[in-house]
Amino acid sequence: MLVAVVVIAAVLVANPLSSLAPSQKSPAGSFLVMLTDPPTVPAGTTMLNLTYSNVTLHVVNDGTSGWLAVTASGTVDLFSLVNMSQTIASVSIPAGSTVDEIQFTIVSVDAKVNGTVYPVTALSNTLVISIANSKVGESLSGVLVDFNPTLVMIQALNATGSTVNYFVLVPSATATIVTSLSRAQIKVGKIIALSPDNREKLVRVVESFSQDLTIANAWLSVDGNVTSLNVTLKNEGPISFRISGLTLHGRFNVTAMGESKTLRGTIPFRVNGTSLVPLLGADTASMVTHGLTLKPGQNVTLTFSGVLGFERIFRPPIGLPGTAEPMWIAIIPIVVSPIVGNTYTLRLMNEGFQAYNVTATS
Predict the structure, then answer these.
(1) How many CA atoms lie within 13 A of 344 on its CB side?
(2) How far apart are CA 140 and CA 93, in angstroms?
(3) What single string gives the DSSP state of each residue in 210-271?
(4) Cα separation of 268 and 276, whole Å?
(5) Potential cystine with 234: which of 93, 176, 183, 216 (Cβ 3.0-4.6 Å)?
(6) What is the pTM of this model?
(7) DSSP state of 62
(8) Where exactly are the structural domains of the chain?
(9) pLDDT tens digits for 278-325?
(10) Using CB atoms within 10 A of its CB, is residue 54 exposed (0-12), middle (13-18) or buried (19+)?
(11) Tens-digit pLDDT profile for residues 175-228
């Protein structure tokens, strides 16, 4: 997260747009930043709170372009935004400007599942989202961000062989310029029902982005404990897409201390350059990854080859009262493997939604 803040600060220095002075031909208007959210969550989830900060807009006006910092930070209850929109910021932008990107930082996420509150690891802490219909043509308009995350429950085994759960948020978002807003929406924090027109706009944007950025090909193989995954992405659209990760869904063999269980679950992968970095358990929660940007006409193959697994530290219980804590500990390796012959679903959930089925081979 610290790196993300530094990167955003560097962008603001390199592309200053601290003021947007309106000309007589382009009077300033109110421009709102609004958030809507239909989350996908496991059964038993009753709370999903997201804390955000560092909201910035990429604005082009009269030949000047740069990132405009927006005073917006806070915590939203994502369950309260199903079919609703919440205004999180209001700024002044000259009519006729182009607002083509928005970015913000995910500071933290908490979820309550079956009565227990869990800290959640975000697959990506910084989102950069392209904005459709990016021309600002009215005195009251805004950007509506459809933040549609998936809360993934990862099942694993602990040192005693019991099943434990970890949670990862896989963010996905699209955004579009919207008009025909009410003056009441200027108030930060205002929540109103999504209009049918704006809901339809978001659907069209998702459909368009899903056609532009595609999973062109993929293969998955297993050799002993070593899993290899190759995924080829192609951008056939007119804009660049930022890719932060993908997920692999299906049934896996999970082995610890010589015992194996078959569990259905999801393995999230972060993108670091062209490498796929698996996110398992809580061990890699602080890992810094950078994603990649796929420009129009480009394609890229993302790869992983290695052992899908992690380690747990096992400390034996203390004996009778007054006895010293045991000095030894055990490092328990936990290995997760796809099952040869099973079909798995790859999902790329960044801007739009892409899915691809792949069968594990030996």
Answers:
(1) 29
(2) 10
(3) HHHEEEEEEEEEEETTEEEEEEEEEE-SSS-EEE-EEEEEEEEEEEETTEEEEEEEEEEEEE
(4) 9
(5) 216
(6) 0.74
(7) T
(8) 2-361
(9) 987 544 444 455 678 889 999 999 999 999 987 665 555 555 555 555
(10) buried
(11) 999 988 888 999 999 999 988 888 888 888 877 777 888 899 999 999 999 999
